[in-house]
Amino acid sequence: MQVTVYGPLRSATGEKTVGLEFTGVTVSDALAEFTAVYPRATPYLYDGDEVRSSVRVTVNGERAALEAPVSNDAELTLMPAVQGGSAAS
After folding, report:
1. CB neighbours of 7 closer than 8 A, spacing ≥ 6?
2. Strands 75-79 and 17-19: what pairing?
3. What is the pTM of this model?
4. What is the pLDDT of residues 1-40, one digit of tens each?
5. At 18, phi and psi to the nearest 5?
6. Domain residue ranges in the chain
7. Which residues of 55-82 are buried (b: 16+ CB within 10 A; e: fewer)?
8. Which of 45, 42, 7, 3 has its CA nearest to residue 20?
9. What is the 3-state secondary structure (H, E, C) of the chain?
């Protein structure tokens, strides 16, 4: 599986795109395997044991739910929430 990351996840992987040996079934499984290999990504993707609601995942360019099936040859994109800033008046 090819995983492309954005924002602070790049500091966790050291690269924009990384390979991941994926043996699971769902997007949620892929996130769990990704954070097992790149544990520094965990606080950006998880709040405790739950995936943060602000995390956006696409599979082969299409937005995907956590329970969606995903294959080992998929292209996964992970986008954590952008935090900070304020509205201008």
Report:
1. 44, 79, 80, 82
2. unpaired
3. 0.87
4. 999 999 999 999 999 999 999 999 999 999 999 999 999 9
5. -130, 160
6. 2-79
7. bebbbeeeebeeeeebeeebebbbbbee
8. 3
9. CEEEECCCHHHHHCCCEEECCCCCCEHHHHHHHHHHHCHHHHHHHEECCEECCCCEEEECCEECCCCCECCCCCEEEEECCCCCCCCCC
Tokens representing residue 12 in the block: 């966790």
Question: What homologous superfamily does CATH list for 2-79?
Answer: Beta-grasp domain (3.10.20.30)
Task: Quickly count: other Cβ atoms within 10 Å of residue 2's Cβ.
Answer: 13
Within a 10 A sphere around the Cβ of 88, how many other Cβ atoms? 4
Residue 75, amino acid: E
Tell me which amino acid residue 5 is: V
